[in-house]
Amino acid sequence: MMRNPPRLALVASAVAALLAAQARAVVIQDNLNGASSSYPWTAINGACLTAGDGSGTIPGCTASNFTYYSSKSSKLVGGVTGTLPDTAGSGALRLTNGDTGKGSNGNSQNGAVVSNFTFPMQEGLQVTFSTVTYGGNAFGNTGADGISFFLADGNQAASVGALGGSLGYSCSNVNAVYDGVVAGYIGIGIDEYGNFSNGSSGSSKNDNTSTGPGFKANRISIRGSGNTNWANLLATYNSYYKKVPTSKIPTAVQNTCAAGYVQDWSSGKDNGSVTSKPLAYNYNFIASSDLPNAIANQQATAKPTRGQAIPIVYSLKLTQNGLLSMSYSYNGGAATPIITNQDITKSNGPVPTQFRFGFAAGTGSGSNVHEITCFKAEPVGQSSSSAGTNVQQSARVEAGSQVYLAYYHPTNWWGELSAQNLLYDASSDTVSMSTTANWNASCVLTGGSCPSTGGTNTAQAPAARKILTWSGSAGIPFRWDGTYTPPAAVQTLMTAGDASATNKRLNYLRGDRTNEITTSGTGLYRARTGVLGDIMDSSPTWVGAPSSPYSGPWTDALYKTATAAEPNGSYDTFKQNNALRQNIVYVGANDGLLHGFRSGYYDAGGNFVGSDASKPNDGSEAIAYMPGAVLKTIHSSTSALDLASAQYVHNYFVDATPGTGDLYYQNAWHTWLVGGLGPGANATGPIGDKTTTGTGGAIYALDVTNPAGFADDAATASSLVIGEWDNTLKCTGNTSCGTNLGNTYGTPVIRRLHNGNWAVLFGNGLNSASGSAGLYVMLVNPADGSKSFLYLDTGYGPAKDPAGKNSKNGIAYVTPADLDGDHITDYVYAGDMFGNVWRFDLTSNAPANWSASAKPLLATGLPITSKVAVAAVPGSGTGANAIPRVMVSFGTGRRLEQTQSSEAVFESATQSLFGVWDWNMTAWNGVAPASAKYAALATAPQPLAIANLTAQSITNEGRASSNTAMLRTVSATAVCWQGSTVCSSGNTKYGWQLPLSTNPGEQVIYNPVIAYGMFIVNTTIPPSSAAAQALSCNTEVPTGFTMGVSMSTGGAASQSFFSTANSNTFPLLNGGIVSGIGLSGTGSPSIVTAQKRPYIVQQTVGGTGVVTQINPGANATGSRINWIKLR
Questions:
Q1: pLDDT in tens, 166-183
Q2: pTM score of the predicted model
Q3: pLDDT band at 1127 (very low <50, low <70, confident <90, very high)
Q4: Is 251 exposed, middle or buried (0-12, 13-18, 19+ CB in 10 A)?
Q5: In order of start, what are the domains of the chain with their CATH numbers?
């Protein structure tokens, strides 16, 4: 499972003191979890620090001089352990107390803090804060009032607003405390009970101001500026209010608040009358969002704790010219927008020159602990963090003459794909990656200035883009204009729920921006930051001139008399005819499209050409494809999943890496691109568990042989789109085999098989209806190109779950193995979600005889979500022991997807790297050529267990010097192979295991690579949980090591594998051989050669490219590498 890096800006450090010169950029961060606050606040009523000692401006909850709760006979509850105080560093700002059951311990309480400092608006304002609510007494099953955060004009004195539904911000229509915040500008109501959005309606004098959609629990609402309080009414409208009797002041303010108009009390009577003069600002309702689940934790438990609460993290951005954006993350889920880039100055008035901040909460007749766990304010653009972004990023870097890097931005969900050169510096003899991109696909599609290239782009015209889709039976143009009218079914999908059937949404998906919502609020569809959608789990796949090793005559080493469909020399002719074809980089994005971008070509001499106008290296989109499964779901009735909706949260569409390969049928060679959708296209959005059935699984195939012929007319579309298959597909002898197709995470592989057909091989995916694990084989008839399917089932479904939880099984990636070098696949290996390693036998020339092994080769009980690597490693002795072994190596781990209401979740058990010997080669050796026989045993345990493997271990971590990356060493224990004489005794092992770090849960979710006899893979060390991150207002990203261990033993090689300076030196760590380097790399490393030296090129979680020299002789004697990669 892959995940591309976001673009991350550097975060400035917090100012040393509040009163430092505020003309320069400041960052105010108060985590509120220690003995005292970092900044001066005015604390009111129940506001206190749960770890406080009373030394700061906010009292400690248990300090002797703080009596708010004790005076109410309210026992302090909650915190980390259920009993206060919390230890310093683990506390929070408490605003109200809770209960230990269905009592009244926390009833009728309120608390607030208002900053005694201000924040300047010269560079705008970005605020992050987090809240938790828990310890309720089951009051009304919704909660007790709620929490507010507000911005007030910093040029005015600090104040708080009314109680009850006003949540300490706005004025109140009914409550005894009725004044609103003085010069309030924005108020955010985290509304448990439901009254913050409940304005007066007609003659009904509801809780809160004159505007609002009405009562609704579990809603987050935004109210605008206001100054409805007695002091301001008397000063601003003196002639109307100066004769109000003292006893009637509450009525005057309440009635004014409810009406939104000035009241005339000039007669001195007991009741004023409504004038026609509206209040300039009355905390008017602006926007809201209903939470996916309840805010309040109404558990009514005997000992409530903070850990039982669901954290909500909020992000508010206000530019200096009044453009407001706000989103929140519920329980670490994807950020949900409430308002995006809207100009609020027309309704709110000019932006003040400085703001002060406030938090308030109340419980009313109910009870809840209301706490703030962190607060951070900084200038706009100072940090690119967003609420709830704890997902991993990944990319396999495609490298050749250029390196292609993919990114995503979680704020408004857009992506980038850039092409950058590798550079050699002769003076330092080092290789690096250019910091300036040759092109950026986002800039090409969006237009305007392009920071990554330093230039400016004219946007590629939406009408000129060549975009195709699938009608259910054929490829068709994805357009709706004078040149083409889509089928009625497509029109219905694009216009469902609209007032009229138009082409506007389809054009929007093509990149047209004329109907995007403007900053003034007009328009139909979500305003995009960039036209290219977020590229999260799809890595760039480069397709250039044909280069597969198919030049020789096709001879099946197992069936020598078989007649091959491929004529001798035909592939060489194909290569020659297509040697100069345009390079295209393909990548899937969550804008619903597989994109193909132009990337130069190679001339007859093999030199890269980027300046030819006919085949340019400019990142312009050459082709795009919207899978039919995406077409059905991209316009969802659920706004949070609808790409064009202003309420769009996030969804996955084309989120897997496509694969490519050449194949022969209908008397010609072709180049195909085949791919899945990852977690995309599920009707109900991403799945974050192991038991829900996915509905979006699909595989598509495109013929990309001739980029010069790409077009989007109907005839060309039908020939370019080979097909698309979903969970309704039928297999030979099994018409219901589609129930095994789940979400298609893996990359399909194109290979030749022994029956004479080319085929597409792919795992059945995750979360299928059947929950089984198996291999799909899509056969391509060599005569007519027709497709047929086989499904090879392992028989291991939910009933075989080793954890006993009836989770769904599945296979993401498959690895074909050609054991005799004839370019025909003999076996396919794969790992499943239950941790089993499978071998599928395709050695027969009759498909009916193909099958999965009766039992797994190895059972680990740990999920395998990435590809297994298969290689033949040298034998371990002389004679029979010198025969090479077939080794299957892999890592374990799994990341469940982030949803709207849950964070991305990683496996918690200890994960490992593994290498297992496929000992069951007796049957193969009986038919294989003499040069392709492998070490075998007559019998062995089936399946093998971890106890049958030699244990390696991580032995040390540290830095070779202060300015280098973290390094890691591992043990080098010999593997005493079963049946061998490698060791003097104890020759009983079948492979190796290297456990990864247990704290904090290191694991493998990226595909490994094999090079120079080494197993190379990026590990992932997950970030803190959403609850832990909510304590600091800092978004954490995963880290990890790039590991390089011996394919044969899983231990250290004979020399260090990684360089820290790219200077042809490979350091030791405290005398130990280095087998890992802490690069926090993502995806699969790519290996390139520069100046005759190999380098790993990859992308880090921060989005930057990194080049690391590796040692080709680390695992070999002399210069000869005597291992074989089984393609």
A1: 999 999 999 999 999 999
A2: 0.93
A3: very low
A4: middle
A5: 28-44+77-227+283-378 (2.60.120.200), 229-278 (no CATH)
